[in-house]
Amino acid sequence: MIWKIKIFGALCFLLLSCNFSAKIKAIEAVSTEKENKYHSTKHIIEAKELLSIHGQKNIKIVDFRKKETYENGHIEGAINIWRTDVEDSTYPFGGMMASKEQIEVLFSQLGIENGDVLVVYDDRGSCDAARLWWVLKNYNFHAVKILNGGIQAWKTAKGSISNSTPKTESSNFSLSENSPMETYIDKEEVLQIIEGHGNEIIIDTRTVDEYSGKRQKKGASGGGRIPQSQLLDWAESIDYDNTKKFKSFKELQAIYAKFGAAKDDPIITYCHTGVRSAHTTFVLTELLGYKNVRNYDGSWTEWSYFKDYPVKKDSITTIFQ
Q1: What sign does the CA torsion over 70, 73, 74, 77 have?
Q2: Is 256 helix (H, G, I), strand (E, B) or coil?
Q3: Which of 200, 224, 235, 271 has the greatest number of CB atoms lying within 10 Å of its CB?
Q4: Of 95, 115, 94, 113, which is closest to residue 104 (Cα–Cα)?
Q5: Distance CA 263, CA 248 (A)
Q6: What is the Cα–Cα distance from 82 to 62, expressed in whole angstroms?
Q7: What is the pLDDT of residues 64-121, one digit of tens each?
Q8: How many H-runs (helices) and E-runs (strands) does the chain carry?
Q9: What is the β-pairing status of strands 215-216 and 201-204?
Q10: Can you give the residue ranges of every domain in the chain?
Q11: Are domains 44-162 and 184-320 of this chain identical in fold?
C-alpha cells in the first residue's frame, strides 16, 4: 500500500512540475512576443488590412510620389500629393514645412475631410510618406497611417492598380488651432544646443558621403555636417533591397542601441531637407518608443545656407548631385 502511495505522489509531482513548466514557458513566450512588438502600430497599416477597407468613404489613400510616377500607376482611388505641395516656397532654399493655411487649402482642394483617415504610401521604404506624417503631426492631425512596404506591398497583396485620377469634390478641411510642434526644432535652437554643448544626441540620417562632406546634394550651399552629429543612414531601418518594409523591433533596437540613449533622452534628427530624418523620427518615436525626438525641419539645406553657422567635414567636396 505504501508503494502505491509513493507512486501516486511521484505522478502528482511530475504532473504539477509539467504544468508549472508549461506555464513558465507560456509566460516566457508572451513576454518574448511583447518584447518583439513595435512600441506602437497606430500609424502603420499592412497591405492586407488596407485591402479590407479599400473603398470606404472615410479612407483617403495618398500616393506621395512625383506626379509622373503617380500617373504611371497607383493604388486605385489614390490621390496624389508630392513634397513640393507641402513645402513653404517663400524661403530662399527648398524643403521647409508648409504653413497650416497652405495645408488647409491643399486638403480642401483634394476633398479631404476632417474626419478622414489618410493612408499614405510611396515607393522608397516609406521615407516620403513619413514626411507627410511628420508635417501633419506637428499640426495636431494624427489620423495618418503609413502603408508598410508601400506600393510594392500593395502589388504583392494583389491590390488593384489604376492610371486614372479619381474625381474629387472640394471640402472645407481645417487643422486644429493648437499646433504643438512636439517633434519640431528650428536652426536657432540647434545652434544654441551646439554652442552650449547640450546633451542632445544629434543624428545625421544621410549617407556617409554627405556626412563626410564628399557629396553635396542639390539645394545645399556646401558640403559637410552639423557639429556633434553622429551618422546613421535612415535606410538601415528598412528592408531596402527587398520588401521595403520596416525592420523588426529587435533589429531596430539593435541598430539604434549604438547611441546609448535612454527612452527619455533628447534626440535631434536631420538630413538634407528633413525628409529622411522624418522617417527616422517615425522609427524612433512610433516603433521604438523614444519620447523626446525632434526633427530639424531645415536640415542641412538650411544650415549650409548660413555661412556663419559652424560646419564639420572630413573630405573635400568632389561629388555634386
Answers
A1: positive
A2: helix
A3: 271
A4: 113
A5: 18
A6: 10
A7: 999 999 999 999 999 999 999 999 999 999 999 999 999 999 999 999 999 999 999 9
A8: 11, 14
A9: unpaired
A10: 44-162, 184-320
A11: yes
Quick one: 184-320 is in which CATH superfamily? Rhodanese-like domain (3.40.250.10)
Which amino acid appears at position 267 of this protein?
Answer: I
Q: Of 230, 244, 315, nearest to 277 (Cα)?
A: 230
pLDDT per position as a tens digit, 32-80: 345 579 999 999 999 999 999 999 999 999 999 999 999 999 999 999 9
The whole-angstrom separation of Cα 279 and Cα 287 is 11
Grid cell at residue 34: 511583447
Residue 20 backbone dihedrals phi, psi, to 5 degrees: -65, -45
State which amino acid sits at residue 150: G
CATH class name, domain 44-162:
alpha beta
CB 255 within 8 A of CB 232: yes
Residue 155 C-alpha cell reads as: 502589388
Neighbours of 158 (CB within 10 A): 10
What are phi and psi for residue 61, nearest 5 degrees?
Answer: -95, 130
pTM across the whole model = 0.89
- The pLDDT, as a whole number, for residue 35 is 57
SS3 49: helix
CA distance 143 to 45: 12
